[in-house]
Write a sequence for this structure.
């Protein structure tokens, strides 16, 4: 192997990775700290950094180094081969774009985000519509440069989960379309009902310290990360600097708690990736679906389970003795595993969540196929919500404006959530095969073996394996919807009997 | 004028300014938010951004545009002439440095900062000494590239206050060396003594809300800035995003309050600078001495005055009724205007503060002249403290390690504090001439006329005038030490009679 070429490639990839980290910090700071009148300045800063990141990532030296290394592909060690393969993919996706694309996109993202936040506040889709039009136009432009003029939505899918297409996603979603509405009907027909409106007056500072304790117990390392507050919870950053956010409401302690557990799943994955060499297949995550599988596994299969909750419940009651005094253990557990028709995706339960994703996938496909106009989106959204969930959103804020994703042009991202649910269900099966005493561990609050298993099976591989291969090796099964369907039936039918 | 060349120059300067803002945010975030194990990653990020900032600021296009615009200097409007003059100065100071200098410096700054923080924590100068050696070496390298091989310290002075030299500073400091120790002796010989140890148990959250109220009343715009907590108070950022920090101790409410007032003085200056065109003489501050004059004027001449404190005192008592119940008004006022021998610069009073600066100025000159070795610095520090202040620091933490500046290689910065005190005293004289009813306004908490006067006399000029000219226009006097000496006598001799 040409060692000097490889070392030079790693240097260039690290430089781009550092700029990516800076860009990520600018984004986090914008959501968490930015003074309101500094939005335009931040947009200009982000555009400048994005432009430089684009230049660094499309440095022609990267192209020629890749050419040299690819010429001796057979003599490359496996690690270097993975680095070269993924660097080529990323490089080609970028060099096809015009020089000013990244800066234009960053500027649009920042402005569209604020337009979305204001439109949602006012529940007025019309205020956001022109920005969504611009994001769609930008995505189509990107697709046309990258050779996806015929099927621009396929590029959007591929960007988040390499190798996937809209048709492949559709095939995986089809059994869910058949099974989940039926499962939902059976659950809702049960006489067992989760209690409503039982949570009142949970002081925010105590919520914060309780969830910090949970996050610590899961294995999150605060020397390499932090938790703050933002409008919409998210996890950003890499390696030694993982920044998660949550939000607090005194009457909804489960929202902060489980969204923090969810984000911690993301954070643990990033903290578990190898550190060096930065910005390569050896250290970056395997894509959005795998990322979501980590957050979902921790949130749902692990922390909403009876044994894990048996550990947390007495501690939760100790933190909020008066607030929980009149709530029975079974009601509390049902509240944590409530299934209901809810218009809001991030408040949705595990069963309906996948229907929310199918709804967005359908609408994105129609938007990209030109079969749906942006101005007709609120009505289409409401119609699909009726068809899939059997309810109608009250207004734009709880309908088409609820999600941040489209404001950043993150089309093709939603399907990853449902793919992540499928992968999580498969990992959960394999985890139980490896740790037959899992329930006993969870009842003791012993999460370290779970984290160690995920580090070994998933995290340490970073992006060295193609998605289907990583899922097959980690879970012992091909990627498919059946484990998810089985898991949902096993979890919810006994509960709602 | 060649309008297209001028527009292109403004674009390039703005791009560099945006990167400077990003660099400033990285620095703020490092002090306020950074997870401890991410220091190396942040050092790498800062080095990457610094390198790009250096490239943007030394873009040869800037050089050729400046050549074109300088060729028609006589036909340039006054504003463009100021932009070109300062851009030329900044450009020349940078193009003489090697390409990798900025990145090396940023990496060193970040690491040296953490070494300093740890050394100070352990009160062990030896841990910091190798980093200080490296910073001195770096400064000498910079001076040799910029043509200051003979007198590298002159460059350090000039970088903070353009046009000044070590000899010029020495000339301004000489009368202070003569007058201040005598004034200090007279004050300390007085039977009037400021009370000690009278503040106990001031809850941090109430300190925070009180000082936020004070900062608001001074005119700070929270839509364009914020206040957070860090080890050492500072103010960073520009324009619409001013980030100030403070620190809290339950037994020292005056430290947070007056350091916040001080940083607010900096923040008000930055918020008062014109917004466009970014990164030019029309919008950037006039240098460190003028910056310090703003923070000092607000902190000392305005907010420590009897009339301003007459406004704040009842509000302070309302916020802390129990804590202040047994403290008389005169004791409180004396505590705010206490004069004492204190080893810590940032805790020093107005009289001894200038002696702290003279001490640092002397040591920096000797270090740069090769007359003092880094290993001998703690002993030299302690000796000078004895000579100037009549006391000996207990250890390195309260001696040579107390200040953050040298960890960032900010030599030649300290003199600006004392120059700032001189300018503040002159502005205070001129302010009283313009507003004969100033005391009545302060007693009512009416600070808006003060801010408006500073906006008009100082802020709006940004960096369009050379320092001596700005001081002369704003205060009606040449820069000198006499106004400061007179002010200190008039403030402190009646109090300590």
């Amino acid at each position: 192997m040409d060692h000097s070429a490889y070392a030079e490639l790693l240097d260039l990839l690290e430089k781009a990775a550092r700029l990516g980290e800076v860009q990520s910090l600018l984004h986090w700071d914008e959501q968490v700290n930015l003074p309101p009148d500094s939005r335009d300045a931040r947009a200009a800063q982000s555009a400048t950094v994005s432009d430089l990141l684009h230049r660094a990532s499309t440095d022609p030296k990267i192209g020629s180094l890749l050419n040299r290394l690819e010429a001796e592909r057979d003599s490359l060690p496996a690690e270097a081969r993975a680095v070269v393969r993924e660097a080529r993919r990323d490089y080609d996706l970028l060099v096809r774009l015009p020089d000013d694309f990244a800066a234009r996109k960053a500027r649009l993202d920042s402005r569209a985000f604020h337009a979305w936040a204001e439109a949602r506040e006012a529940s007025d889709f019309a205020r956001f519509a022109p920005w969504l039009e611009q994001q769609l136009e930008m995505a189509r432009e990107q697709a046309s440069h990258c050779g996806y003029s015929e099927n621009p939505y396929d590029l959007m899918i591929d960007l988040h989960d390499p190798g996937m297409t809209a048709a492949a996603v559709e095939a995986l979603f089809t059994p869910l379309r058949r099974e989940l509405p039926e499962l939902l009907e059976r659950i809702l027909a049960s006489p067992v009902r989760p209690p409503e409106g039982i949570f009142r007056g949970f002081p925010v500072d105590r919520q914060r310290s309780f969830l910090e304790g949970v996050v610590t117990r899961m294995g999150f390392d605060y020397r390499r990360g932090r938790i703050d507050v933002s409008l919409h919870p998210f996890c950003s950053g890499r390696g030694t600097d993982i920044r998660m956010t949550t939000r607090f409401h005194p009457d909804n302690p489960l929202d902060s708690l489980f969204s923090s557990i969810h984000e911690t799943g993301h954070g643990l994955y990033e903290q578990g990736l190898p550190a060096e060499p930065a910005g390569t297949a050896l250290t970056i995550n395997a894509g959005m679906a795998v990322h979501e599988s980590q957050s979902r596994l921790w949130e749902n299969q692990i922390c909403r389970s009876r044994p894990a909750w048996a550990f947390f419940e007495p501690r939760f009651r100790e933190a909020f003795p008066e607030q929980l005094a009149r709530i029975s253990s079974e009601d509390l557990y049902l509240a944590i595993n409530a299934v209901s028709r809810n218009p809001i995706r991030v408040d949705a339960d595990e069963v309906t969540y996948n229907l929310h994703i199918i709804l967005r996938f359908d609408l994105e496909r129609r938007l990209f196929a030109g079969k749906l106009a942006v101005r007709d989106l609120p009505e289409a959204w409401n119609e699909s919500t009726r068809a899939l969930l059997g309810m109608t959103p009250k207004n734009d804020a709880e309908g088409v404006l609820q999600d941040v994703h489209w404001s950043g042009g993150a089309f093709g991202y939603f399907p990853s959530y449902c793919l992540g649910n499928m992968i999580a269900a498969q990992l959960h099966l394999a985890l139980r095969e490896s740790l037959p005493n899992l329930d006993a561990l969870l009842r003791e609050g012993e999460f370290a073996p779970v984290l160690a298993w995920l580090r070994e099976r998933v995290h340490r591989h970073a992006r060295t394996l193609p998605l289907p291969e990583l899922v097959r090796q980690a879970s012992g099964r091909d990627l498919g919807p059946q484990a998810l369907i089985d898991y949902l039936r096993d979890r919810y039918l006994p509960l709602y009997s």
